[in-house]
Structure formats: C-alpha cells, structure tokens
Amino acid sequence: MLIPTGNTDSIKTTSWKVVLPFYGYASIAFFVATILLLFSVSDITAHYFQPHNLALTHIMALGWGTMIILGASHQLVPVLIEGRLYSNKLAFASFILAGSGIPLLTYSFYVFDTGHPALCGGWLVILALISYLLNLAVSMTKSKHENIHAVFVFTAALWLLVTATVGLLLLYNFTYILLPESSLRYLPLHAHMGIVGWFLLMVMGVGSRLIPMFLISEYHNKTQLWWIYGLINGGLLAFVFIFLYANNHSLLIIPLLAVTSAIILFCIFCSSSYRQRIRKKVDEQMKISLLSVLMMLPPVILLAIIILLLVASPKENIRLVTAYGFIIFFGWVTAIILGMTFKTLPFIVWNKVYHQLAGKGKTPNPKDLFSNTVFKWMCIVYVMGIALFTTGIFFKTSIILPLAAALLLVASVLYNWNVIKLLLHKPVAL
Amino acid sequence: MNNVITNNNLQCAVALAALQNISDPEIGLNIVDLGLIYQIDFDETSQNIFCRMTLTTQFCPMGESITHAAEEILKDCFPDYKIIITLTFDPHWNQERISVEGKQFLNYC
C-alpha cells in the first residue's frame, strides 16, 4: 500500500482539539480530589460507605482515571487498530456528557442527595460512555486490521458501561426499591467491575502495546496476551456469578486466583519486553509506568487477606478495605497516569504547536516542553505521600494522614503545573 | 543507512545526509538510521525526487510531522526538484531495519 503524503488522511491522527480537553479536565479533577482528601481525612478511616468517601472515589475513578484514559485512548486507538478514529464529534460529545455528569454525581454524593442531580449525572455519564463505545465500535469495524489490543480496549469499555449502569441502578435503588437488598450490599460488585473490567483490562490492553513500543522491544507474545484476556474476563464473570448466586466467601478465591495469574503473566510480559529492549536508556516517565505495573501486586495481596479474613469471620475489616481502595485509586491508577501523561501529552502539544514548522528549522524536543525537575519532585512527593497515607490508614495516626494528604496535594499541584505549562506552550524558535 | 534502496549517486547520499537531520522525537534517533526511509530515487528527466518511507506505526501521532519534515528538508536541499514522498506500510517497519549506527546509538551493540 502506497500513500502519497499529499493526501495525509490515511495517517491523520485524532485532532488535539478532541484530546486536550480530557487531559485538562482530569488534571483539575486530580487537584480537587487531593483537596477533598486533605479535608476528609477523618472520614477515610471510618467506614468507606460515607458521602465524602463516595464523592472522593468517584472523582478519582471518573474525573481523574476515566477522563484521562478516554482522552488518551481517542489518540491511541488509531495506533492500536491501525485505522482512523471514526468521529471527532462523538469523541467531543463524550467529553461534554461525561464532563457535565461527573460533577453532578460527585456533588450529589458529597451532600448525599441521591435524587435528581445524582440520577441526571449518572445518565449523562452513561450517555458519554455509549458515545465512546459507539465511536470505538465503528472505528474497529472500519479498520481492516484485527488486533488483540483493540479487543482489550473494547471489552474494557463494555465493562465500564456495565459498571456505570449498575452504579445508576444502585442510585435508583436508594429511592425506589429495585433490588432485593440495599445498595451497600452490591457495592463490591460495582467497584470490581470498574477496577478489574475497566481499569485493569484497559491498562493491560494499552500497556501491552505501548510498553514494548516505547522500549523498542523485540518481545511479542500474543498467546500470553490472550491468556491474560481470558483470565481477567473469566475471573470477573466468575466473581459476578459467585457474588450474586453463591453465598460462600471461600469461592471468591477462584476469581482472585484468575486475576492474580493474569497480573503475574502481565508482569512477565513487561519484564520480557524490558529485557529484550533495543533502547537501553529508559526515561523517568517510562520508569514510573513500569513501577505502576508492579503496583498492581499490593492491592491483590490486600484483597487476598481481606477474602481470607472474610472466610474466617464474616465481619469486614474496614481498614484493610479502605487501604485496598486507596492503593488502587491513589496508588496504581494514579502512578500509571502520572507516568503516561508526560509520555503522551508533550507529543500531542508538540504536534499542535510545531507541526507546520517541522523540517523548517530547529524546534524544541517534546520532552523539553515540560519541566523534568518538577516531574522528578512530583514523583518523590507522590511516593512519599502514598507510603505515608497507607501507613496512616493502618495505624490510624492523626498526624500522619493529614501530612500524607498534604504531600499528595503538593504532588497534584506539581502535576498541574507541568500540565498547564504544556497546554499553554507557545512556539519557541531555537 | 545501508538498507535504503537508491540509484546510487552522490545526490542520493546528500539527500540521505539531509534526512539524517530529522529525528524521531520519542526515540531521539534520526529517521534514516531508524530505517524509516525505504528508497530514494532521483529522476533527472522529470526533475523529481521519489522518497518511499514508512513510520514505526501507522497513525503514529508524529507521523504527519515526520513526513512533512522530510518533504521540507528535501525541498530545501534540492529547490529545483519536485519532492514526491510516498508512505508505505508494506513491509511494516520492524527493529531489524535499525542500522548498526542506530543500534549503537540506542546502546544495543
């Protein structure tokens, strides 16, 4: 296939106008979440089913994690499927819908009003996800290339839609009794469909393409990836079935083993890619992304302990559950985003600002568009904050938790500083 | 750069040297040693330069900028010629296309 470059449609990537708003929105959401964390420290150590905790979880899961993944995936899906994104308008619609639904939902949780604002927020998020899924489905259908990474992404998006639908059902269940039991009972189902089905599957699908690509690795193993895909989806479906139909905590070991095996296989995949890389020098952004792969393991260990304790005694260990949720959203999800933002955003901005100047003289490198010193400080402060906060949850220390939350707030300020620097970048002649 | 097909004249060498000024911004290696240039031919009769090249991945976010830069740099070097750049993904780029110098740059050897 030969493509004359006069017609660049065949390699045209998604417009920055679609992608950048998602990044901007997500970075503000991260900042808001860390402020909320600082002012809700006392709630964190109480039961997780608290208005402030629910608000915080939804800002982190939707405003931060999901918005940035949606934005980045609009840029990365064409790379994964080797085809164009079907519609920029649908992508923009998903931004507007999710962007207006998330604050409504979060505010409603914060004041614990499960009436119309919350329901409206929930519906807007669902419509956003339908737009995203439709865009993805048509793009994949139009692409002539079949590939496993796109299957991961599409399945992850389906799980997200199911998660959001279950979430909306739980909201309705507060007012109209639709389910046999209270909404609290179904919370683990809603949470794990989102964590495993959406975040884990998405991260593995995209990571299995990007990690070898950025490392220029010679390692490829499609069979291993299909095993990971099967284990995660099989494990999650088993969890849903056991949760709904078998009232036996010991059976939860089955999905746990399936998902743990998938995570171990993914770690092996990343480690093999790393060992067989051609590019020896690994940059800071890639290091933190690789670190986040290892950060998948602590929540799994915590979950195993939670399940074993549940088998021994039906009473839930609240601290362990809180630490588990915290490590997932502030630890694993956030570490991936902190690393990958500065691996993707500088290129999007560079394309926006310097595309027409390419080949006409010296232009700055995409990596020079943000401050690497600020990035390093952000990483140091972030790792300290995560370690201290997790310790604080376990030991319920009144001094450690606010200090750790303040460190995470500083990390979010530093992150925003670099994101703003990138978003406002103007052409510089060298 | 020994894996580029050329009609072996001095002009091709100049063109390739010029293209070596364009680097893949992510990898930091120039596009010739990275193996993105498949073929360069000069047609003296029609005054055309044909450059057949690829990208590390189709829909690479930097793809348009890289091809645009290649066109501009060749235009700058050979103002009397018409530059015709053709992108191909057959065969797909792979790591084996990286030159020995490129691999040394990436600290492979």
Structural description of this entry:
The complex is a heterodimer of chains A (430) and B (109). In chain A, 77% of the residues lie in helices and 1% in strands. Chain A contains 14 helices and 1 strand. The model of chain A has no long low-confidence stretch (mean pLDDT 89). Chain B contains 3 helices and 4 strands. In chain B, strands 1-2-3-4 form a 4-stranded mixed beta sheet, with helices on one face. In chain B, helix 1 packs across helix 2. Classes of the chains: A mainly alpha (430), B alpha/beta (109). Chains A and B meet through strand 1, helix 3 and helix 12 of A and helix 2 and strand 4 of B.
Top keywords for this entry?
heterodimer, A: 430 residues, mainly alpha, 14 helices, B: 109 residues, alpha/beta, GMP Synthetase, Chain A, domain 3, 4-stranded mixed sheet, 3 helices, 28% helix
Write the layout of secondary structure elements.
The complex is a heterodimer of chains A (430) and B (109).
Chain A: E1 2-4, H1 16-39, H2 41-44, H3 51-81, H4 88-110, H5 116-142, H6 148-175, H7 183-215, H8 222-245, H9 253-275, H10 284-294, H11 297-312, H12 318-354, H13 372-395, H14 400-423
Helix pairs in contact in A: 1-3, 1-4, 1-12, 1-14, 3-4, 3-5, 3-7, 3-12, 4-5, 5-6, 6-7, 7-8, 7-9, 8-9, 9-11, 10-12, 11-12, 12-13, 12-14, 13-14
Chain B: E1 5-6, H1 10-19, E2 37-43, E3 48-53, H2 63-77, E4 82-88, H3 100-105
Parallel strand pairs in B: 1-2, 3-4
Antiparallel strand pairs in B: 2-3
Helix pairs in contact in B: 1-2
Give me the oligomer status.
heterodimer
Write down the secondary-structure element order of chain B.
EHEEHEH
| Mean pLDDT figure of chain B | 86
Shape of chain B: globular
Q: DSSP helix count of chain B?
A: 3
Average of the residue pLDDT scores of chain A: 89
Q: What name goes with the CATH superfamily of chain B? A: Fe-S cluster assembly (FSCA)
Name of the CATH architecture of chain B: 2-Layer Sandwich
The SSE string of chain A, one letter per element, is EHHHHHHHHHHHHHH
Q: What is the molecular shape of chain A?
A: globular
What is the CA-based Rg of chain B, rounded? 13 Å
Count the domains of chain B.
1
For the biggest β-sheet of chain B, the strand order reads 1-2-3-4
Summarize the amount of helix of chain B as a percent range. 25-40%
Ranges of chain A where pLDDT stays below 50 over 5 or more residues in a row are none
Uncertain residue ranges of chain B:
none
User: Any idea of the CATH class of chain B?
Assistant: Alpha Beta
Gyration radius of chain A, rounded: 21 Å
CATH topology-level fold name of chain B = GMP Synthetase, Chain A, domain 3
| Amino-to-carboxy terminus distance of chain A | 37 Å
The biggest beta sheet of chain B is recorded as:
4 strands, mixed
